[in-house]
Amino acid sequence: MVGTYWEWLRGKKPLVDAFLVGTVMLLSLPELVNGGSDRVAVWLVTAALLAPLIVRRMFPRTVFAAVALISFAQCVADFRIVPANIAVLIGVYTVAAGCTFRWGLASALVAEVGACLATVRYSYNGDGRKTTFLVLSVLVAGVWILGLHMRTRRAYLRSVEERAERLERERDAEVQMAMSAERARIARELHDVIAHNVSVIVVQADGASYAIDTDARRARQALETISSTGRLALAEMRRLLGVLRESDDVGVYAPQPGVAQLDDLVEQVRASGLAVTFEVDGTPASMSEGRQLTVFRIVQEALTNTLKHGGLRVSADVRLCYAGDAVVVRVVDDGRGAAAADDGRGHGLVGMRERAAVYGGSVRASPRPGGGFEVVARIPVREDGRMAG
């Protein structure tokens, strides 16, 4: 509540300065009431000195010039000093706090000249003049230093606020970048899930349509494979899309697939009608979940491409080789190879290369000279081995 009220007051500068003018008027009230024969002149001088202060922060140099000229005319006319002459000091403070250092110094020098003139005009003996000049000089210097201090403090506060705003913008930008990266990851995951499972469903549906009149058992088996594959695809899509929900406590999501799930993947592809062999060479190395997911998705994408583009009676060979500080994934098929049609809309090979590049790996995918297609991926696992050690 107090902070809101203060922010409102900061936007109403003339209103706040009017309260200051009212306070000085209260200090001048005894002089105004007991002004004697020149009471009217006291009222006029007081009003002329205090009225400009209402807009002192909007026009600091103009207001200071006005009160300085009025005080100078007052001194030349040998009119007595009134409490409202404090407006000169208020003007010095305002210029020092709100303008550049040079303008603040200039206002202090002008006020010091006014102190000299006031000392000469209103003091009549040596000791009195020294005291008056010393007091007025100390007041001018003190007000000027206070204005400089406030100017420095305001500049510091502005820099702190700007830095906080900049950090907040940078934080928001980082959040947006993280969200974009997560959406890109989800898009790749969805591509892998949909492309693989839909390819299996299409192959099984084609097989069922051919066998429905001649071999009802095989057609029924193909339909069962389509059903289970569709359910698996829906489950994985729900898991991936679930991260886009606003609440984090809805649903329980299955863990990401890894190297241990390659056997299940191969069995699923075999059930779709593709002859697949799977071999593992070497001692399995310690790998993080991210690297295991990368290996799984590369094998999945390579087999999906074989299902889509390999043709009839195609077979594939999947080999996982642990070679020291890296794992090498090799998927070879004997399908159409370079003769396979490409609509140019796939992102599978690009996704494989991006996944491997995250961990410093590489992917080579090309048709084989004797027919078929080959995908070879090399994923370094040295870092994971060190962490495990």
TrEMBL record:
EC number(s) from the headed UniProt entry: 2.7.13.3
Keyword annotations from UniProtKB, A to Z: ATP-binding, Coiled coil, Kinase, Membrane, Nucleotide-binding, Phosphoprotein, Transferase, Transmembrane, Transmembrane helix, Two-component regulatory system
One annotated GO molecular function is: kinase activity
Which parts of the chain are coiled coil? Answer: 150-184
Sequence ranges assigned to domain Histidine kinase/HSP90-like ATPase in this UniProt record: 290-383
Membrane-traversing stretches: 15-33, 40-56, 62-79, 86-111, 131-148
Q: Which reaction does it catalyse?
A: ATP + protein L-histidine = ADP + protein N-phospho-L-histidine
User: What's the protein here called?
Assistant: histidine kinase
* Organism annotation: Actinomadura graeca
Q: What is the lineage of its organism?
A: Bacteria, Bacillati, Actinomycetota, Actinomycetes, Streptosporangiales
